[in-house]
Amino acid sequence: MSEVGYSGKPLREKLVLKERHRTRFENVPGYLLGRLEPLPEANDPPFEFVMWFPASVDELQARFAECEGLLAGVGMFWVAWPKKSSPLRNTLDFAAVQCAGLNAGLVDTKICSVTRISPD
After folding, report:
1. Among 50, 44, 42, which residue's Cα sits nearest to residue 15?
2. What is the pLDDT of residues 37-77, one digit of tens each?
3. How many CA atoms, within 13 angstroms, populate the side-chain half-sphere of residue 91?
4. What torsion, rounded to 10 degrees, do the Cα atoms 86, 69, 61, 12 define?
5. Pairwise CA distance, residues 30 & 67, whole Å
C-alpha cells in the first residue's frame, strides 16, 4: 500500500527505504508499516535502517543509545512522534529528538511527515 503524500513521493522514497536494507522497526504502528510495504525480510543486526516510535521523552532518553546502536556503522535512524495537533498525546517534539541525536554524536537531521497519525 504505497500511498503518496503531499510531496508527491511515496513514503518509502522519502525515507530512502530499500528492499535490500537490513531493517528494524521499533513500536511502529501497523498502519504505518502497511504504507512501507513491501517490507524487507526479517533479519538480524546490524541494521542499515532503523525506525523507532518512542512513547515519551523518558523513553527517548532511556533507549536512544540502544536503538541508535542497532545501526551498522552508517545507516538511517528515523525517530518518529505524533504532531502536536494529533489526537495521540506524547511529550516528544523535534527539539527533544534533535537534542538526543546531537548528544549521541549524530550530526545530520532530516524531517519527514510520514502520515496523518490517528489511533489504531
Report:
1. 50
2. 888 888 889 999 999 999 899 999 999 999 998 988 878 99
3. 7
4. -10
5. 19
Range from 13-17, 44-48, 55-59, 81-85 carrying the lowest mean pLDDT: 81-85
pLDDT at 85: 74
Place of cell 546531537: 102
Q: Which contiguous run of DSSP H or E holds residue 15?
A: helix 11-15
Kindly state the DSSP code that residue 41 receives in the 8-state scheme. P
Q: How far apart are CA 51 and CA 28, in angstroms?
A: 7
Cβ pair 77, 47 in contact under 8 A: no
The grid coordinates of residue 37 equal 510495504
pLDDT at 27 over 50: yes
What's the alpha-carbon Rg for the chain, to the nearest Å? 14
Return the closest-CA partner of residue 39 out of 24, 56, 57, 61. 24
Measuring CA to CA, which residue among 36, 4, 5 is closest to residue 23? 36
Residue 97's H or E segment, with its range, is: helix 94-103
